Amino acid sequence: MASCAALAVLWWVAAAYPVVFRAGPVDGLAVNWGTRALHPLPGEITVRLLRDNGFDKVKLFEADPNALRALGHSGIQVMVGLPNELLAGVAGSVNAAEQWVLQNVSTYISKYGVDIRSVAVGNEPFLKSYKGQFESVTLPAVQNIQAALVKAGLGRQIRVTVPLNADVYESGDGKPSSGDFRPDIQGLMVNLVRFLLDNNGILAINIYPFLSMDADPNFPKDYAFFPSPGAPPSQASVQDGNVLYTNVFDANYDTLISALEKNGLGSIPVVVGEIGWPTDGDQNANVPSAHKFNQGLFDRIVAGKGTPRRPQMPDVYVFALLDEDAKSVDPGNFERHWGVFNYDGSPKYALRLANGRPVVPAKGVRYLSKQWCVLRPEADPNDPSIGGAVQYACQYGDCTSLSPGSSCGSLDVRGNISYAFNQYFQASNQMKNACAFNNLSVITTTDPSRGTCRFGIQIDTGKHVLIGKSAAGRASAISTAVLLVVALLPLMMAAP
């Protein structure tokens, strides 16, 4: 996911990341399943969680072997992703594309019975912040993957797509009907969409009202949410001819449809690849807001209510199924908290899904022991070694919930330090020497959680390896967490 685009010109054009909408009322749903977690929920438990909650489509950002094997013979349709870092290799070699399809698509279909229906080539490759890094390789990669699927006999069974950020289009006057592709990639977008259209592909767009609101303090908050039935429209509603746009999703999606129609590409099927609301890591990321947004989203999904330009609801992949504590925090500390469910498959809030069914938790989850690592009661929080200890703990554990305005943002200094120590302790599978910290910490069986701040206990994955410098390679996805700690340390030490 990334930052929102062109807010000064187009309020509703947002950044980036999935449950699926279909035409007409639906019983099934779809969602993004990210796997960047230090203690991932076991695949078989996750698949049961999907099925128990009525999700019949899932999107994977990469061909994760554990997830794909678990999805075999599950009845769940799968979109599997080819990451951006593989685009250049696949673009430059048909053989590389064929090998990728063989290893990550054909094998899982034939050997494990995975119902793969589409391949997502790259993820938001034309994002402005990438500064053109993937612009020359995306279309060739799409062409080679399409050719590889045809050669494998899967050309009719599997459709190719490219999930794009909403910053690939814009509107000069802020009206959806004026939508067009970004000038610097106009030709590229036309060629890409034309190829997808000619080869039975689909276009995926990621829409994030949260990012639009979070990036602009003047953004009208009610316009980010779906209006309740009978509620007055937002003062920020946009009148476009005879159509009144009352929420950012409808306006954003229809801006893309206008851009496609302007370029003679209006018949391409368009799905929403990612949309959701995070619950932590930012002052605007909280449970009440996420509940409000996602309930409105699910209601639209179930009702099949589309947009003014596309009255039939497209497939919409909600972002995301689970929190991921090993994701990069480059876009923001909220990036690890998009899940409808917590890391362990427990619901964050009450949602009504298809047929009014409430969400149900994951079953059969095994946890580590009920113990936590905290600052020793007699330890001085002003000890000069505290800062380095906390920095080290948060380099390998997830401390994003300590961000200002987050669920643990109001802890006192002792609470901040204890939270950091416990995150490292849990990430290290509660190994005894993971709660050493120069004799500043102690293991306790009394839950130190307070208020909205939950001191978690990790999932027992059976892999008991201490996280530390020797594990830096395995923990590369969380290396940026230390930047958060450096920024927070002055606040933590100054807390009352």
TrEMBL record:
The record's listing under InterPro entries reads:
GH (IPR017853), Glyco_hydro_17 (IPR000490), Glyco_hydro_17_plant (IPR044965), X8 (IPR012946)
Q: Which Pfam families does the record match to this protein?
A: Glyco_hydro_17, X8
Q: GO annotations under biological process?
A: carbohydrate metabolic process; defense response
> Per its UniProt entry, which superkingdom is the organism in?
Eukaryota
EC numbers for this chain = 3.2.1.39
Q: Where is this protein localized, as stated in its record? A: Cell membrane
GO terms under cellular component:
plasma membrane; side of membrane
- Protein topology in the membrane: Lipid-anchor; GPI-anchor
Domain X8 stretches: 371-455
Give the signal sequence positions: 1-16
| Keywords, ordered alphabetically | Cell membrane, Disulfide bond, Glycoprotein, Glycosidase, GPI-anchor, Hydrolase, Lipoprotein, Membrane, Plant defense, Signal
MF-aspect GO terms: glucan endo-1,3-beta-D-glucosidase activity
Write out the catalysed reaction. Hydrolysis of (1->3)-beta-D-glucosidic linkages in (1->3)-beta-D-glucans
- Indicate whether Transcription regulation appears among the record's keywords: no
Respond yes or no to whether keyword Glycoprotein is given for this record. yes
What family does the entry list? Belongs to the glycosyl hydrolase 17 family.
Q: What is this protein called?
A: glucan endo-1,3-beta-D-glucosidase
